[in-house]
Amino acid sequence: MQNIDDKELVDLFKQGVNGNAAGFALLGRRIASKLKKDGDPVAERLADLLAAPDSAKPARLVSRKNVSPVDSDSRASLVSEQIKFNFPNDIFWDEQVDAGLNSIIEERNSSKKLISAGLEPVSKVIFTGPPGVGKTFAASWLASKLSLPLVTLDLSTVMSSLLGKTGANIKSVFEYSTSFPCVLFLDEFDAVAKKRDDDKDIGELKRLVNVLLQSIDRWPHQSILVAATNHPELLDRAVWRRFDKLINFQNPGKDIVLKILKSKGVSEKIAGKISPLLTGKSFSDIEKICQQAMKKHVLHEHAYDDAILGVLICELGDLELRNKRIKEVVAQGVSRRKVAEVTGMSHPTVTKIINAEG
């Protein structure tokens, strides 16, 4: 250990005695990296310890040091936890999201190798994108792939109108979720990490964001912090540099919509005709349309293709939108006779709608 000086060892012990897990891990990785360069065999053993082998265990076997945090007044739980996950065989990420999520898995599974080189695996990720594009689903998927429990902050319970209470609740959630390897999911992150330039209640807002930033800074690399927001423009500037990785989720494009429809049982012919009309819709919107169609298929014994055409045209909007949809599906190659059949309208009425201006 000729390259390790006394000051590094003293600093390492200070971090341990003071209970600063993040500082201890950081100094430990530096020492392990130096030992590896010296060819010292103990370097690999240190890397094993710092790589948090507990995180590779099934979620149900991970031990917890604290009880689940609750609001001191209502006694309601501040978090929800999930250890069992069920995912469909086909998951339709776009290429950018797929690459980003799989790079996280790769780094976490190779944490020992990274730590031996004095590097940290990604541990703090922020998801951005509109509602219904799969941010919550992706957090669950990561937890499942890494065999970690998913701890989700309950924003409705955490937020309080009482001075200082929200910050105390946030602190409790972080103290709990850093006591064992997990994925902590902070949905609607902009609600607690809002820019500190609002003239209203600026003092309390500053205190809350400061508590949050301090908690993020102490986040241990053994776990993953996932924050999600529909409004990235609202986040405080200081928040962004605390995260290792940004993944931007978007509504599915035409090719992915086509794959989703076919996976739901829509024929290739009809899926090809209606996928352009659903491009720009969220994953959750497309899922709702398919579910409504399946209900019509089951309850009224309509052919599934006819059911999804009927739902797309008639059941998702007002009369003006219905007429617009009729024109759109006909423009995509659906016959007027088929439109009349699935909507229960007469053929002349459909023709009248198509020929109408506007």
Tally of DSSP helical segments: 17
CATH architecture of the largest domain: 3-Layer(aba) Sandwich
Widest beta sheet: strand line-up? 1-3-4-5-2-6
Distance between the termini: 80 Å
User: What does the main sheet amount to?
Assistant: 6 strands, mixed
Q: Provide the β-strand percentage band.
A: 5-15%
Structural class comes to: alpha/beta
Q: Going by CATH, what is the homologous superfamily of the largest domain?
A: P-loop containing nucleotide triphosphate hydrolases
Could you give the order of the helices and strands? HHHEHHEHEHHEHEHEHHHHHHH
Share of helical residues: 40-55%
Mean pLDDT over all positions: 85
Shape type: elongated
The domain count comes to 3
Rg computed from alpha carbons, rounded to a whole number of angstroms: 26 Å
CATH hierarchy, class of the largest domain? Alpha Beta
Number of strands: 6
Domain AAA+ ATPase: 121-253
Protein name: ATP-binding protein
Organism: Vreelandella salicampi
Keywords: ATP-binding, Nucleotide-binding
